[in-house]
Design brief:
Largest sheet: 4 strands, antiparallel
Radius of gyration: 25 Å
Strand order of the largest sheet: 3-10-7-8
Distance between the termini: 51 Å
Number of strands: 15
Number of helices: 21
Length: about 475
């Protein structure tokens, strides 16, 4: 007998004006004659995106982050997706080389909920005649399931190259080449989380892939400092008004901290632990990321675990959400230290400082000083000629010395830091390494070989490493 109607109206006027922003923080009784709507007031200058206060839209992309953030593959053809059983029927394991063209595949729901365990046919780089000659079963499958859909598409390039993804992401592929893993986040999701994916997994169009295997980068991206920045700058989408992660607005302009090696190692250690903690809960209990962070947000709001309902309490207990909360709190403190900021800054102050730091870094880059995130990959593509010369070992020792110093860090003293240091060396390796091999990655050399060996054995017992001969080790592949 009645309707609940919400009206959205926007009236704009030119110029710069002060304004009042009212955010709804809680609603109740909306279907009664006495609804309760609680608002939070923020006063300040009105920005073009209808925010108030610091203007994130005035930041600029940083060269330091160039070439690392991309959206995943856009298939344009549901027939590209197959089950492992279908892949075997199409020749996987029988046709030589097909393992490079049928790969595991993840989309947003796979990351936030339960993976579908599907694979994708990726024929990028192959001509139609090559596919027909080398992989005849695959050719027939794609001919029957993809080509009709492509022929009906209005874009001529989709119909012409019907056996290749609609958007195969030519720039993302070299960025991921030779990496053992990369960082991924769901473009639109209720909770902004980042995780490592094995490099063998292809990301879907609704994932944003960050081409780095460095847990330091994962840690900074997972911190509340970056999450606040991403939520404010990325926009919102969908019925649930979920935050959207736009790589051009959230990642490209974001100024990463540039801390000392000890702080970098601490951030990397916490990021590795958070990533492993969540994946263990997913594998052992089938608890999804969304479920974990729903309960985590409830705890952050001040709710005591004893007050949780039965379902959330089981998640809290099985996924050890109290530990996850503690790890995130530690990470936030160390990342704040990396910026040399107080750990208790309010969000408006954090955003104001990040905008100021973005402008400072942009000015540095205009003078030729770039704090590359992956210098060995980025400089050959985007660097200046002096930087390229330094990277090749030419005259000018500045960058070459920094690179050499990065290659030979000091082997840390604490057990946790040693675990992270060894893991990072193995993550960058192209094959199995022995304790002696890994020891040579540190400034102490053979003096730390025994300590490295103990760490390798501990990681093997934990199931993190594998070895064929008991002497050389490699990281187990993670989902």
């Amino acid at each position: 007998e009645s309707a609940a109607v919400r009206i959205a109206m926007t009236v704009a006027t030119a110029g710069t004006h002060e304004g009042l922003l009212l955010d709804v923080t809680r609603e109740s009784g909306l279907d009664t004659d006495a609804p309760v709507v609680e608002l939070r007031e923020v006063r300040g200058r009105i920005n073009a995106d209808l925010t108030v206060g610091v203007d994130l839209a005035k930041t600029s992309p940083l060269l330091a982050n160039a070439g690392l953030g991309y959206r995943g593959m856009q298939l344009i053809g549901s027939g590209f997706i197959v089950t492992p059983a279908q892949a075997a029927h199409l020749g996987l394991g029988k046709r030589p080389g097909l393992e490079n063209h049928i790969r595991h595949y993840r989309n947003g729901r796979d990351l936030t909920n339960t993976p579908r365990d599907v694979m994708v046919i990726d024929l990028f780089g192959l001509g139609e005649a090559e596919v027909r000659r080398d992989f005849p079963e695959v050719y027939q499958h794609v001919l029957q399931t993809v080509k009709p859909e492509r022929d009906a598409n209005n874009r001529a390039s989709y119909a012409k190259l019907w056996w290749v993804f609609g958007e195969p992401r030519k720039d993302l592929r070299p960025a991921l080449a030779h990496l053992p893993r990369y960082i991924a986040t769901v473009e639109t999701a209720k909770h902004r989380t980042f995780q490592f994916l094995d490099a063998a997994i292809l990301p879907d169009n609704m994932l944003v892939a960050i081409a780095s295997a460095d847990a330091f980068h994962l840690g900074v991206l997972s911190s509340s400092i970056h999450v606040s920045w991403a939520i404010r700058s990325g926009g919102w989408l969908g019925m649930g008004n979920d935050p959207r992660y736009s790589k051009s607005r959230c990642f490209d302009p974001f100024p990463f901290p540039d801390p000392d090696p000890t702080t970098r190692t601490e951030i990397a250690a916490l990021a590795e632990e958070i990533d492993a903690h969540r994946k263990r809960a997913q594998a052992e209990h089938g608890i999804t990321l969304t479920q974990m962070y729903n309960v985590l947000e409830t705890l952050r709001s001040g709710t005591d675990p004893s007050s949780l309902n039965a379902k959330d309490h089981a998640i809290w207990q099985n996924a050890l959400i109290g530990t996850l909360k503690h790890l995130h709190e530690q990470l936030d403190q160390v990342v704040a230290h990396a910026y040399d900021w107080p750990a208790d800054l309010a969000e408006p102050e954090i955003l104001a400082r990040l905008v100021a730091l973005n402008k400072e870094r942009a000015a540095e880059e205009s003078r030729g000083q770039v704090r590359w995130l992956r210098p060995e990959y980025q400089i050959p593509r985007f660097g200046s000629e002096p930087e390229k010369l330094d990277l090749r070992g030419g005259k000018g020792a500045g960058l070459a010395e920094e690179k050499a110093a990065f290659k030979k860090p000091t082997f840390p003293k604490s057990d946790l830091a040693q675990t992270v240091a060894v893991t990072l060396v193995l993550a960058r390796a192209t094959g199995p390494l022995s304790a002696a091999d890994i020891a040579q990655s540190f400034s102490q050399g053979r003096k730390v070989e025994d300590a490295v060996g103990k760490t390798l054995r501990a990681l093997t017992r934990m199931g993190e490493l594998a070895s064929e001969d008991g002497r050389s080790f490699y990281l187990r592949k993670a989902a």
